[in-house]
Amino acid sequence: MISIMDDDIEYQRLNCALGCVIGAFIGDALGSALEFQTCVTQNMLISALLMDGGIFGNGPGQVTDDSELAMCILTALSETAPKFNPDLIGKYYKDWIISKPFDIGRTTALALRPLMNVTDNFWSCASESARIHNKDSQSNGSFMRSSPLAVFCRKLTFAELKEVVIDDVCMTHSNKIVQDTECLYIRFISYLIQNPKDKDNAIIDLFNCLNEVDNENTRKWIQDAFSSQPMNTNDQMGWVKIAFDYAFKQIRKHEINFTQAISEILSLGGDTDTNAAIVGAMIGAYVGYDNLNDDWKKKVEGFDSMSMRGIQREGEFLNQTLVKKKVQNIFANSPDYLIR
User: Fold this and answer.
1) pTM of the model
2) Is 217 contained in some domain?
3) Which residues are involved in binding Mg(2+) (predicted)?
4) Range of the domain at 128
5) Peptide bond into 82 cis (omega under 30)
6) Residue 336 labeled ligand binder
């Protein structure tokens, strides 16, 4: 028999799961209006926060490659959960490449374009391409799409979570620092989803998990995020350490407000859509879906590229109106242990 208390905690967890994914999508859509600006004026920020579209011609609430790749993961996980099948994620990455995306980063392109020439073994193809081309890349292209993994992994051990996260990351990024650091980022968010508002114990858990990571560079990134001055967002645009650093600096504030956190990262310029997506996933998981800006939620969740102003994107897997339902499905079917 399920108690009222059990129902309440599950509602809170779902609220955090939706906050994570929708928060990332909101950050992406907002940031697309300011991408690569080195100086963001107050008027530019005010305009961007209206969410009236981006520099690519994407419409109000329409997301970019960050969240389109997240939709690939969402679709695959919603079809297989509680089982995990990275090859199906790779298949949707192929579908995405074939769709001629209007925005794509160099690291992602190098890894995924060979998928256009295969009909199976998608994970192996992308992983091998990433191993050859991207071993030195520390770009933000895997973090930016990762929010659905935090929902799926919410009940897994850290060892199991690492398997899931690295299986996805390695399809574009073979760099071990990126892989190990993303595991910790996802673990932290998963903890917040499963233990709503408990950021103090999430931090304790993070450092316990760090003891299981044999990577001094990853340890340094964590130490910097907790003790160093904020990074310059315009130096080495696209470096994932920037958004990783700001996400942890925002979550450690005494008072956390999603709108304020997103506004702050956008005001710094740089790779704004991806930085805001990465920060938005973590802060969204903490504050929960109910505390996200209603207008932003409405625009992101209601955007239909086939009938609204913006860039047409065909395929059910790129339908933003289905995102919330897919998150709910993954949440409901998230595994107690890793099943392949």
Assistant:
1) 0.97
2) yes
3) 64-66, 271, 273-274
4) 4-331
5) yes
6) no
